[in-house]
Prior knowledge:
It contains 3 helices and 5 strands, in the order E-E-H-E-H-H-E-E. The chain has helices at about 30-40, 65-70, 75-80, and strands at about 10-15, 20-25, 60, 90, 105-110. It has a 5-stranded mixed β-sheet with strand order 2-1-5-3-4. About 30% of the residues are buried.
Amino acid sequence: MKLKVKTAMPKITYIEFNGTPHEVDGEVGMTVMEVARKASIPGIEAECGGACSCATCHVYVEDNWTDKTGSPQEMEEDMLDFAFDVRPNSRLSCQIKVTDELDGLVVHMPEKQF
């Protein structure tokens, strides 16, 4: 039996409000927020550490990725009520799990986090 070896990690691009991109390797199983914090991406505060009890990891998922990242669950929607400039493609990055299918994901950060 041959084992399938995965050599590449999913790439995620974080784009700061000022347009500065940061492309990083994401580890499958981590969240988009955890990947950002590990890579010291500016604009992702993540004050609650991923417990979905704040909105300081708010991102905008590029429209062509919203089907793959899914929709916010009720708890996430409640927290997004506290976010700055919420849009239809707003998500809390702590609630998006990195999978192989998210290779190439692009998220944008809002002007500020609360």
